[in-house]
Specification:
Distance between the termini: 53 Å
Largest sheet: none
Helix content: 55-70%
Structural class: mainly alpha
Number of strands: 0
Strand content: under 5%
Length: 148
């Protein structure tokens, strides 16, 4: 499909497409690099190279909302959904809405408006409540606590 320059009715130059695709491509490359790092590090064992510990858990002994995120991504990349859910259920459940928000952002860069939950007035408040509830729940219920 050829992009059309709205002002002149002629095809837009290829540089416009490249300019619009620059940031989405950078996010995909960063995500792939992060996935490769998580797989190489193997945060579930001592076989991989060490990753820094969570500073909140190190200082307070409490699980922060992001604790277990690296291990969750590791298990998700290995298609082990049960283990991924165990390490950080909230992050796993937020992946589809976050993927939709990213898709909406990319489509918007190319002039196609897709509805997204991020444009709703209430979305930051709902996300904050979810994160706070998850933090309290995982620290209050011993079965949800992650091992140190």
């Amino acid at each position: 499909m050829v992009e059309v320059d709205a002002g002149a009715g002629r095809p837009a130059p290829a540089s416009t497409f490249l300019h619009r695709a620059r940031w989405p491509a950078a996010t995909v490359l960063a995500g792939c690099a992060g996935a490769a790092l998580v797989l190489a590090a193997d945060p579930t064992s001592d076989a991989g190279f060490p990753l820094p510990p969570c500073p909140i858990k190190l200082l307070t002994g409490l699980d922060c909302p992001g604790c277990g995120l690296t291990r969750m991504l590791f298990h998700l990349l290995r298609a082990d959904l049960a283990a991924a859910l165990h390490h950080n259920a909230l992050a796993l459940l937020l992946l589809p809405p976050l993927a939709w928000a990213w898709t909406s952002w990319v489509a918007g860069r190319f002039g196609r408006a897709l509805p997204s939950w991020t444009s709703r007035r209430w979305s930051p408040q709902v996300l904050l409540v979810l994160v706070v509830l998850w933090t309290v729940l995982r620290n209050a219920v011993p079965e949800l606590r992650l091992p140190t």
